[in-house]
Amino acid sequence: MFLGPGSTDQLDRRLTRDLAERVARNWSLLLVNGLALIVAAVLIFNIGWSVRSLSIFIGALFILQGISTALVRSLDRPAQTTNTVTGLLSIGAGMAIIVWPSPGLLAVAIFLGAWLIVMGTVTIAGAFAPATRSPAGGCG
Question: Rounded to whole angstroms, how far apart are CA atoms 115 and 41?
């Protein structure tokens, strides 16, 4: 989410206090995003959806998550490009789900609900991770 492929080996040389603070500023956005994903998953599992209403809900969720992903600030340009492309693909998938719902959407919803719980939990953990590490990389 914050680093592009192959950029982690360069991170040790380039990580400064400024970069660490930029990542830490995103904690509230990550927390809200993670909580929203978990709430969406609970709704998917607990509501008796029609195919049409489920397709609209999931499509809107894909669109909102795509916007969020595209707008996340990264530490390097490759990660920002990846976030933007991934976000745009998610927005496109959301529009396709809304426009062309199918009976297979119910099966997708079960997998999506499980995925949202995992992503929400990981995102929440990421929101708190910068606050638990000192800038030098130690615990604290």
Answer: 8
Residue 133 gets the label, from left (phi > 0), alpha (psi -120 to 50) or beta, of beta
* % pLDDT > 70, the chain: 68
Task: Let me know if 95 is exposed, middle or buried by CB neighbors in 10 A (0-12, 13-18, 19+).
Answer: middle
CA distances from 127 to 26, 104, 120 (A): 7, 34, 10
Per-domain residue ranges of the chain: 41-140
Q: Which CA distances in Å does 100 have to 20, 21, 66, 74, 135? A: 43, 43, 18, 33, 48
Instruction: Write down the pLDDT at residue 39.
Output: 92
Res. 124: pLDDT tops 50: yes
